[in-house]
Amino acid sequence: MTSPIRILMCAPDHYDVDYVINPWMEGNIHKSSRDRAVEQWQGLYQILKQHAVVDLVTPQKGVPDMVFTANAGLVLGENVVLSRFLHKERQGEEPFFKEWFEQNGYNVYELPKDLPFEGAGDALLDREGRWLWAGYGFRSELDSHPYLAKWLDIEVLSLRLIDDRFYHLDTCFCPLANGYLLYYPGAFDSYSNRLIEMRVASEKRIAIEEADAVNFACNTVNLEQLVVMNKASDGLKARLNAVGFQVIETPLTEFLKAGGAAKCLTLRVTEPVLADVHANVHVESRIISIQGHLLDSGLINRALDLIVDNGGSFQVLNFNLGEQRQSTSAAEVKVSAPSHEVMESIISYLIDLGAVDLPQDERDAKLEAVPKNGVAPDDFYVSTIYPTEVRINGEWIKVQNQRMDGAIAISHTSEGVVAKCKLLRDLETSESVVVDVLGIRTIRKTESREKRNAEEFSFMSAGVSSERRVELVVEQVAWELRKIRDAGGKVVVSAGPVVIHTGGGEHLSRLVREGYVQALLGGNAIAVHDMEQSILGTSLGVDMKRGVAVRGGHRHHLKVINTIRHHGSIKNAVEAGVIKNGIMYECVKNNVPFVLAGSIRDDGPLPDTEMDLIKAQVKYAEQIKGAEMILMLSSMLHSIGVGNMTPAGVKMVCVDINPAVVTKLSDRGSIESVGVVTDVGLFLSLLVQQLDKLTSPYVEKVG
Ligand code: ARG
What is the pTM of this model? Predict the structure, then answer.
């Protein structure tokens, strides 16, 4: 059966750039020449006529983009899905195309109103007929894809476009005969690129560079071994020739001004149906509900952005606006994703924002057995810092030991079902683990605006300069430290040796002595340098008073380590009177527990340093329990380690001269963490001064 290929075109009688709906049209309004456009269109038409039957639809006034017949609809066999244009500028074309399809005997399918889909501009059949590639992101909506699958009875693979110059799939993607694919990878998100690579073998993929892509090299008409396009580089021509394609270039520059070229100007209206190919949709949808100060906290924007940024799409089904300043709003949002995998990642982010399944289709969490001690099932849900609940047998159960980067382990005890955050290594085969993202929610408090602002560090919102920021952080931290101490609360400090090198040792010692610190977390180094300063007056061999290196000073820290080893522990050394001041001294004297976690570079180590890292992590976690505030002073490793163990709700202040460390910790996204980029010695000295200011009036009164 060799019935001819038929192509639909529309002469450019009324073609012009009259408006801007894509980046190519910008600056080109009325800049194209009608004569040249007619000439170029004729050039393409004559070439195609030699290889196919070309049908013509009558051009219409007022719809200049009607020349781009690729956007009329999508044909497969007898059926056509008519386009629903996103922009009102092109919606006027719809009835004319509809009429043409009806007159030519097609079954016409029409999408629901407000569900944009731009025809063969955004949906391209694999040339072997095995499946349909469908684009979304700019013009066509992801939710149109399930309709295509259903009506055309074909598998639909959704690809997300991310570069607005390539707003239609056919501007950057062209399936060719024999399973080849011509495409520009840069136009797609990483998930889509992976999907392409999974479906098309590497020897069949002809990935092009940006220079060819902007000449619309992918906007190609492919008829058997022939490829017709505006322009291709010599390199691209050679690659196409090498795999058996003959390249014909025909200039279409006038149409490039409207953002289209060869393929856009055509619609293949004969597309044979393969008997054994059937519908299959990968697109998934779920309805979630979200509540809170959706507007004034920006929560709804964050949620919707997050859906799109992660490759999904949404429809807001319901929005109940809380009218009073204190009332909360509630929204129901339909989330669509091109696959289950993408859906899972989107939902896990939405869970962090407090989203839940719509009550009527709430489902239990999915559980899977621990396959082996210390190993979670593949698809395990990764825990976050937020208070979490999981739904088991219809009941929401609070997860204990909340921390990030764990798994949620479920065990059945005499008191009932227990859910706990556990590190992978601690999982046991008697437990099961929450997998997927069903039946999981985080509890976000929806306090009034005022209360929320009070819990947040107040300078977080405004545009505060970095110098003023340091002062403000110091003021606020001092205030908090005083409040917590006076209420008998708990502050944990994690600190690195830089505290000593920058002269902060005496200030931190004072904080310990005056009861502002309830536990100290560090490594071997901070303790060694602190005691070196106490015993020998140097820190890593540098005289701390004069700021110069002392002869032979590089051996000082080893001497100190040796001394402490001799005494068996820091505590013993303090009690023997070897150490008379400093941070470690104050810890021992004031019964402030400390944990020193070892590392590969440690000299010694000190007898107190825990070189078994798993034990060190456990000891850190014990000290963090119940903390209200954690001060992280210039130690990337220890600070990040601490951050990972700490649930939301604990105020975290990270001070480091390296902005990368600070960003990493304040990126946790919880409102209570704050970072300051500054010298830690300076920070501590300001903090101590500020505490003095706060306490002196009180002292005077008493005195
Ligand atoms: N100006 C038209 C638009 O922005 C160009 C359409 C090009 N067609 C295509 N299939 N890519 O809609």
Answer: 0.79
